Amino acid sequence: MNDIFATLESEVRSYCRTWPTVFDRASGSYLYDQDGTAYLDFFAGAGALNYGHNNPALKRKLLDYLERDGVTHALDQSTVAKGEFLRTFQQNVLEPRGLNYKVQFPGPTGTNSVESALKLVRKITGRESIISFTNAFHGMTLGSLSVTGNSMKRGGAGIPLVHATPMPYDDYFDGQVPDFLYFEKMLEDSGSGLNEPAAVIVETLQGEGGINSSRPEWLRGLYDLCQKHGMLMIVDDVQMGCGRTGPFFSFEEAGIQPDIVCLSKSIGGYGLPMALTLIKPEHDVWEPGEHNGTFRGNSPAFITATEALKQYWADDSLQKSTIAKGERVGAVLEEIAAEHGWAIAKGRGLARGIGFDDLNVAGKVSKAAFDRKLLVETSGPSSEVLKIMPPLTISDDELEKGLQIIRDSVREVLA
User: Fold this and answer.
1) What's the Enzyme Commission number for this chain (predicted)?
2) Are residue 68 and residue 24 in the same domain, yes or no?
3) Which of 261, 281, 312 represents a domain boundary (last residue)?
């Protein structure tokens, strides 16, 4: 079977090169290849599987819905499935956090949400320029790429990516420059050449950029700067939302309320395509049909998303569990960093990483872990960070097993 992929599938494929086997089924925190070999998953579908593979509670609801011929495709028509999702999202997520957002269904993926947010802030403000941040990643379509930092991904666009200006992310200068010194100077200097921005777009924890976590005070400072200069604030929570850092939204710790929030990946609950753009009501100035898409209403994903919110966000149990497990991962990574002297532990919640000065190490550790039947990827501009993102529902025993594999893999590579 392996030959068909090399023969027929595009050269653009990537994850299958990192993990050269053919997977057949998955359950909980494990994937199984066609020979039945089990692989512990510290990848979680790049953050799309926060509740694990084929979560039985979500699967049962989905099967029941399909078996009764529930609507599968509905564009943006009103359906029972969508209405139940919206009610549950309001009751279990928005109201407990005192958040007031309108919900847009922009399309099935994270980049759809980002594209809709960029269009909307330009419509609201009448301005074109967007501020992004160093090492950001926001998606692979042209608007999202324009606010993405990675030069290889930007290069794939094939055309100039314009109307976006990068600014230094938190601690970009290793504490040597005060927060926003450069950004605010550019905003206030009429000779700076900086076009008046419509918005800033920011990840509170950069996943693809290298597990770079911003401080709450930095986020609050950014929010205040936006308020001062009439810029809207977009938080891209596509990968770090839905509990990945502990709270449902990654920005909760900072106590801010962004103007727009982008969600995708695990919002569908089951790995089914789904995305949301959350908009403060006063900014919901769309004309009907001004931004649309054939697959913006994925009814099966509404079913699994609703059940995930009921199962995991009716109280704070998952949040507390994620924070506790994340602290355990962080402690082990600190031990590994101390043992080897030139590595650094990064992240929060169950989005963690360990960065290496030698840019080749993380990739070698990922391969050594795969040989030990653990799936763990790399991130950062040079793939220098080993990125650890297991399902939030992983058991303590599974977590310890994976962490031991990482210990052994690092020791092997650095021996």
Assistant:
1) 2.6.1.76
2) no
3) 312
Angstrom distance (rounded) from CA 208 to CA 231: 25
Beta-strand runs (E) in 256-413 = 260-263, 276-279, 343-348, 351-356, 374-375, 377-379, 385-388
Q: Are residues 115 and 264 in the same domain?
A: yes
Task: Tell me the whole-structure pTM to 2 decimals.
Answer: 0.97
- Class of residue 95 by CB neighbours under 10 A (exposed 0-12, middle 13-18, buried 19+): exposed
86-140 pLDDT, tens digit each? 999 999 999 999 999 999 999 999 999 999 999 999 999 999 999 999 999 999 9
Q: Alpha-carbon distance 398 to 373, whole Å?
A: 12
Alpha carbons 223 and 218: distance in angstroms, whole number: 9
Same domain? For 248 and 373 the reply is no
Which of residues 312, 335, 350 is at a domain's end? 312
How many Å is the maximal CA-CA distance in the chain? 65
Distance, CA of 76 to CA of 306 (rounded, Å): 17
Adjacency order of strands within the sheet including 385-388? 343-348, 351-356, 385-388, 377-379
CATH number of 382's domain:
3.90.1150.10
Tell me which residue range forms the domain holding 227.
62-312
Q: What does residue 230 show for φ and ψ, rounded to 5 degrees?
A: 70, 30
In this structure, the answer to whether residues 110 and 48 fall within a common structural domain is no
CA distance 109 to 114: 9
Return the residue matching tokens 């927060």.
Answer: 179
Structure tokens at 264: 């995708």
